[in-house]
Write a structure and sequence with these properties.
It is a single chain. The chain has one domain (18-311): 3-Layer(aba) Sandwich (Aminopeptidase). Helices cover 28% and strands 21% of the residues. The protein is built from seven helices and twelve strands. Helix 1 crosses helix 3. The relative contact order is 0.20.
Length: 312
């Protein structure tokens, strides 16, 4: 994500409706997942390393405990892919599970699990980037396993985002399901750090129909629209994380994230530096929004016909 420069207040519209029921219960599992995934033993979770392999083992354990189903086309939850770099071939693996809904229309919930590894003997743990997004994904999966969704939900922990969105591109190029069944991607990348309690959502500029679902029961979290108007130049986050791969195929998306902070892509992006209360509130708020959207029986109806035509 790019460092945010101030833009007009008109772009910083707070979410349309906020119910005043405070929800501040700390989610111990959410914090535990972040702490474990961003510990030194995972060696910064760089693609095609021992740390990445350890991360997949942990995610396999968590996916299994939650009860996510796996696609028969994959090796368990793993979707293998490879790509070439100037240093040679790199092997990556996405982690994909799903919960069957009442319909076969699909929402993909995603977050990348990789980070940048060890540099000059320092471990870059990536607690915010993006152990936070993965922990939230696990929280959402556990919730919907206990509360059957209207839509089939795919939970995708992508690999190699830090190397050019390679994992999400591989998923789109060789999906385990028909792409036309995917109605929406909800992506999270860095959602645990904000001194102002501000969480940004990108995607409503292109898909304003989604704004009506932005209601939460926690008044402390400020969910702000913006960062997706092409006129803002490098402040446009439309192609800054894995949701870009879905957008390239005209699949509607929402991307939740915070502005870059002083520990972004530094060895100091550690668990001790995340804002635990903000993170808990952010994850709970996003879950409520996903729930609001999922209750729409025919999600395709909320998008313009021209969007669906582009995908055919």
């Amino acid at each position: 994500m790019n460092t945010y420069l101030l833009i007009s207040l008109g772009l910083l519209l707070s979410c349309g409706s906020v119910k005043q029921n405070r929800n501040t219960t700390t989610d111990a599992q959410l914090l535990s997942d972040v702490e474990i995934l961003s510990s030194d033993s995972y060696e910064g979770r760089k693609t095609d390393t021992k740390g990445a392999e350890m991360t997949r083992a942990y995610l396999t354990k968590r996916f299994t405990a939650i009860g996510l189903k796996s696609f028969p086309e994959l090796n368990g939850y793993e979707q293998a892919f490879s790509f070439e770099t100037d240093k040679g071939k790199v092997n990556g693996k996405n982690m994909i599970g799903y919960i069957e809904g009442k319909t076969d229309e699909i929402i993909v919930v995603s977050a990348h699990y990789d980070h940048i590894g060890i540099i000059n003997n320092e471990v870059y743990n990536g607690a915010d980037d993006n152990a936070s997004g993965v922990a939230a994904l696990l929280k959402f999966a556990a919730y919907f396993k206990q509360n059957k969704p209207q839509h089939t939900l795919i939970f995708a922990a992508f690999d190699a985002e830090e190397m050019g969105l390679r994992g999400s591109k591989a998923f789109i190029e060789q999906p385990p399901i028909a792409l036309e069944k995917i109605n929406l991607n909800i992506n999270m990348d860095m959602i645990s750090r904000s001194d102002k309690n501000e969480l940004y959502v990108c995607g409503t500029f292109k898909y304003p129909e989604l704004k009506k679902y932005f209601t939460t029961t926690n008044p402390t979290i400020k969910i702000l629209f913006g960062h997706d108007d092409p006129k803002t130049g490098h402040n446009d986050w439309t192609n800054q994380s894995d949701h870009s791969s879905f957008n390239a195929r005209n699949i509607p998306f929402l991307y939740f994230g915070v502005e870059d902070h002083k520990d972004y892509h530094k060895s100091s992006d550690d668990y001790k530096n995340i804002n635990k209360e903000f993170f808990n509130n952010a994850a709970s708020g996003i879950l409520e929004i996903i729930n609001n959207i999922d209750k729409e029986r025919d999600i395709q109806k909320i998008f313009h016909e021209k969007v669906r035509m582009k995908r055919q």
